[in-house]
Write a structure and sequence with these properties.
By secondary structure, the protein is of the alpha+beta class. Helices cover 53% and strands 17% of the residues. It contains nine helices and nine strands. The relative contact order is 0.10.
């Protein structure tokens, strides 16, 4: 598959599995050609056809985010970059493009208030997907069990083995905590990107309620629940309000 670096438009070939059907592969290729030729709306149509068929991938969301960015649809770009991030969280090009997009977001000060006191722990958990954390946990658990088996054989170096078991056991518990947090971040939290140019968060699910805050296109929100045509969203524990569903692209 091919993806595009936003800043320079350089083609980057990356090793990745093909989509499940030749039709999806063809649509993805058509989207890439349209993107290269500057036909961003056509590229979006092709990429979206693949996504709507349930055949998403990191490369697809990455390119789709770039195409939306080039079309100045910054909210939809943010949503697709977030989808790509869940699959390839350490990708340097994705990080750079998300940084460029963040510079266009008008709610940087509000977004900064979302940082929790345990941010370092959260940041570490985001370096791997939850499936990657699961693999690390399984490896450490296997090493711990092997050490335990060695200790039970009555090895002369049992003291050193017990220390090793304790160390790997502690690491396993820590990695399990990162695994749980990564899973919750990627599956347990409902997020969305603001796709309206500007929208007010209100104290209740209706335009007649008091305005609590104002957000702009591209800002990421946490979605707590929905009521009718409205979503209860938050930027932080202190900043929350009701926003029309039509103004938010759910991740």
């Amino acid at each position: 598959m091919i993806r595009f670096r936003l800043a320079t438009l350089i083609l980057i070939a990356i090793p990745a599995a093909s989509f499940a059907t030749p039709a999806a592969d063809s649509l993805f290729a058509e989207g890439n050609r349209a993107y290269q030729e500057g036909r961003f709306e056509d590229a979006i149509a092709s990429y979206e056809a693949v996504r709507e068929a349930g055949l998403g991938s990191g490369a697809l969301y990455y390119n789709l985010g770039n195409a939306y960015y080039r079309s100045e649809s910054y909210g939809l770009a943010a949503a697709n970059y977030e989808r790509a991030k869940r699959i390839m969280p350490r990708d340097p090009d994705l990080k750079e493009n998300m940084r460029l997009l963040a510079e266009r977001t008008l709610d940087g000060d509000l977004a900064a208030q979302r940082i929790p006191p345990w941010q370092l722990f959260v940041t570490v958990s985001r370096q791997l997907t939850w499936k990657e954390w699961l693999i690390v946990a399984e490896v450490l658990y296997a090493i711990t069990l092997a050490g335990l088996a060695l200790a039970l054989t009555g090895s002369r170096r049992a003291g050193g083995v017990r220390s090793t078991i304790a160390s790997f056991g502690g690491l396993t518990v820590l990695v399990a905590a990162f695994l749980a947090l990564a899973w919750y971040e990627q599956n347990g939290i409902d997020r969305g990107a603001v796709i309206a140019t500007e929208i007010a968060g209100r104290s209740g699910p209706g335009s007649q309620f008091t305005q609590e805050f104002l957000v702009h296109e591209g800002t990421m929100l946490r979605v707590h629940r929905e009521r009718g045509a409205w979503l209860l969203c938050s930027l932080s524990a202190e900043i929350r309000g009701w926003i029309p569903q039509s103004a938010v692209e759910r991740i």
